[in-house]
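Assemble and predict.
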Amino acid sequence: MADTIAPQPAARRATSLDIKTLGPAIALILLCVIGFLLNPAFLSEGNITNLLTRSAFIGIIAVGATFVITAGGIDLSVGSMAAVIAGVMIIVMNNTIDTFGTGIATVLIGCFCSIILGLGAGWANGMLTTKGKIEAFIVTLGTMGIFRSLVTYFADGGTLSLDYGIRDTYRPVYYDSFMGLPIPVWVFIMVAIAGWVLLNWTAFGRYCTAIGSNEAVARYSAIKVDRIKTWTYVLQGLCVSLATIIYVPRLGSASSSTGVLWELEAIAAVIIGGTVLKGGYGRIGGTILGALILTTIGNILNFTDVISNYLNGTMQGLIIIVAVWLQRGDWGRKGRTKL
Amino acid sequence: MQEAASIEASVLSAESVSKSFGTVPVLFSVSFDIRAGEVHALIGENGAGKSTLMKILSGFHDTTSGAIRLDGEEIQLPGNGQAEALGIVLIHQELNLAEQMTVTENIFLGRELSRNGLLNRAEMARRVGVMLAEVGLDVSPKARISDLSIAQKQMVEIVKAMSRNARVLIMDEPTAVLTDAETELFFKQVRKLKASGTAIVFVSHKLHEVMEIADRITILRDGQWITTKQTAEFTLDSMAQMMVGRELSDFYPPMNEADVDAEVVLSVRGMTTKNLRNVSFDLRKGEVLGFFGLIGSGRTELFETICCLGEKAAGTVSLSGVESSHASVAEMRDAGIVYLTKDRKEKGLLMEQGMGPNITLLALPRFIRHFMLDRTAEQKALERGIRRFDIRARDPKARARELSGGNQQKLLLAKIMEAEPRIVVIDEPTRGIDVGTKQQIYHFIAALAAEGISVVVISSEMPEIIGICHRVLVMRSGRITGELTGEAINENEIVRYAAGLKEETFRG
């Protein structure tokens, strides 16, 4: 008797977990169905490619944010960081034309510069949070303001434009395709796979989860908490720099309005994907879906007149709130308390 | 007095209450009643169903079948602590105080006094001052909860319950973290409450305390009601036997002789920190070394400092004769010394994670192959741990928080043993766990020593220190005040050293 009923709780746990993990995927499929019903052109190859390319920026940044958030931190500076990195990249590339011309060498110098800046900015955020013992929210709120004002200053309040010669060399990074998929989508896929492996299959990922669950337990378990936390911010910086590298050739310019609100979209993508905001549980796959969901909403609104495009933010906001409400996971189990 | 109590009708009672979580039954038709002006102790091993019964009595859980009666009337208790309005207060083992608020704010939380729409803070502070003085708790009403010791927090919880005119006070292991002196003070309050007619349910693993304070005792085992009798009808032995359901012979394992010539594996000299003053001692291979002392005597701080979990001001640590320059917990782990915390929930286990990630966390570098986690090896570690330490979980995917205290402790042991240490420091190895599991842990410690592993046992429980240690060091106010070996280890001497009545100039 006992034997026959014993496995049931495990089965129930599995199904409730499945609803949680499959939620974002189901939501995305629903959105696609709605999009298709509103306008069949939604599922055209051109639109799908466009959608994926646009998701790439937020998606790549959100992969980094997944680590920061899983380890119990938060990084609000990513949007401003992207803007300042884009600005500095453009200045550096424009100024190296005299020495290296408008060829690949100049673009590579720009990219190198971007990566160094990304790592450096992430490291600064990380050290201020860990060694400086300042709340991550405050640190990155501070650096967010600093980065934003720096790009405004560099652009002298206007727009930094990339030299047209370099634009032609750099253009393919955003506009060209490889095996039918745009380059940014490939970068997105690679970052996503690398992030998934790192989070689920390495000690680093396990340590992030442990720190996010309970820092004291992590410390008592011989985990170098400060070092791991700093690494999550460095990783976030790297992701921002990669996103910026594929973003710059899109418009060839940077201004104080570059990357505005990216931090919120990245965090939203992470949360919609099922990662817990207070840390301790992270899902890269969910983050990817989250980024796709956010972009899809905007895309659908562009396609239809039913809801004004200006309500994009409203729709995204609603989706975020609903997603988190669904993930609370205790709906339909009213009255049941934990043991 | 006793007769009077027994004639009196019960204030709160459970009649043939059963409870299942999902399809897992945890209580089988248990009856329990509590009368005004009595202390009714509820005892049983971990997982016997005590917590569930307490939560049912206070409305936090509903019943699967059976009835709850308040003053003889059948009642459906409101959930989520709202039963407090009916005078039924449950004091959780994990105290429920707002850490960042003051004592006064906590005690008046949710029913603040106000005058003309503004908080009457002066009056609240005055009343709390009176209440604190009554229980002999020497803290300011303005003190922040986070600045109090656990014992003080416990007393604040009780003051809070008293201030709510609780008719039924249900306390889950209130004395687990109290020292003997604090326990005495606490019992004084309990007797006062009892005299004023409060019905008190008292849950504890400390059987002698139950003997001292309870009027009646109910024993649960595996979710079944075993017996309810007057305290006078029990002996310590009969209680323990009924809890476990078998004879508890060989409670303490046979001790192998300590080899006084064995190699010194750990040697500490002149360890000094904020609270430690010049502590020196040696630990030999295969030795079980006990550290006894009152709370705050510096035992935990000493070993956390040795394991690089705390800041040291001066002093050296030598491992097998070589002075260690290690600066991190990871390096100490690799050098073969690990520390098992007494604070399972906050420092020991990731409560929201499964057993697997917990068991390999300390020794994770051992589970890396080609830079990747070796999940197969992790699974084997889990199976090994469950087998070796007899960890019982409802299902293998259970999260750490769903395990009983005893099983959590075993999981923690399994976790530190994955690092294959040569020296194990176990802080309060049996805090808050039942007799049966205690016995298993004692036998396990003895087995480790027999294998040649050195074990340091930090404990506030005298019998276990005496029962399992080859040698005992007693600490007081950040210093080692005495050393006792073999036959000389007895309660009297330990107490004299711990209380400062006797002191020897001790050099390790």
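Residues 125 and 479 of chain B are 38 Å apart (CA to CA).
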